Amino acid sequence: MNTKNLVLMALLVGVGAALYLIIPGYGEGMKPDFMLTMMFIGILLFPTFKETFLLAITTGVLSGLFSTFPGGFVPNIIDKLVTGIVFFVIVLALRQLGQKVAVGAVLVGLGTILSGTTFLSMALLLVGLPGGAAFSFLFMAVVLPAVGLNAVTFIIIYPIITNLLKRSKFSTSISQA
């Protein structure tokens, strides 16, 4: 792993954490997880297993620490690890499509659905759902709005980051494409 890549991954996770902390909650304090979007951007920029694993674990731990979901620490770690690895495999499989923003936005949307489903499933199995809420209610009220917010956030942030990386000749898969 390259030190520059580690620094950029740390910045992405930090920006995701800051966004997560300032976004107000809704529906019993639930929030869209912008750290997830930053994890996806990191995986697209650095598509190696080591970097994906590091991003997923770091994002999962921070998401768990900041989670407003009762008992959400462990489900967050499991969710980010599963989602990160599956997203990484999909990115490798679709590598021939290139680094297009539209493809990335669709992948971020699908990744958010996978993440929300994994998180709610783990929460249901490990700690139960808060207030007797149903899985489908939380999916519709929290996960689906997060899909849209994460995709829009990706569409805004990803081109900015890739343009900055191209200008600075940063060593990523983007600058090699």
Keywords:
single chain, 177 residues, mainly alpha, Arp2/3 complex 21 kDa subunit ARPC3, 7 helices, globular
Count of strand segments: 0
Distance between the termini: 19 Å
Instruction: From the alpha carbons, calculate the radius of gyration and give it in angstroms.
Output: 16 Å
Overall geometry: globular
Provide the β-strand percentage band. under 5%
- The helix/strand series, from N terminus to C terminus, equals HHHHHHH
Annotation field: number of helices? 7
The assigned structural class equals: mainly alpha
Average pLDDT, to the nearest integer?
86
CATH class division: Mainly Alpha
Helical percentage: over 70%
Uncertain residue ranges: none
> What count of domains describes the coordinates?
1
CATH topology: Arp2/3 complex 21 kDa subunit ARPC3
CATH architecture: Orthogonal Bundle
For the biggest sheet, the summary is:
none
Protein name: Tryptophan transporter TrpP
InterPro entries: TrpP
Keywords: Membrane, Transmembrane, Transmembrane helix
Pfam families: TrpP (PF17099)
Structure summarized in a few sentences:
The chain is mainly α and 177 residues long. The protein is 76% helix and 0% strand. The model has no long low-confidence stretch (mean pLDDT 86).
What does it look like?
Keywords: Membrane, Transmembrane, Transmembrane helix. This is Tryptophan transporter TrpP. The chain crosses the membrane at residues 6-23, 35-57, 77-94, 101-127, 133-161. InterPro entries: TrpP. It contains 7 helices and no strands. With 177 residues, the protein is mostly helical. The two termini are 19 Å apart. Helices cover 76% and strands 0% of the residues. The radius of gyration is 16 Å and the shape is globular. The model has no long low-confidence stretch (mean pLDDT 86). It has a single domain (3-167), classed as Arp2/3 complex 21 kDa subunit ARPC3, CATH 1.10.1760.
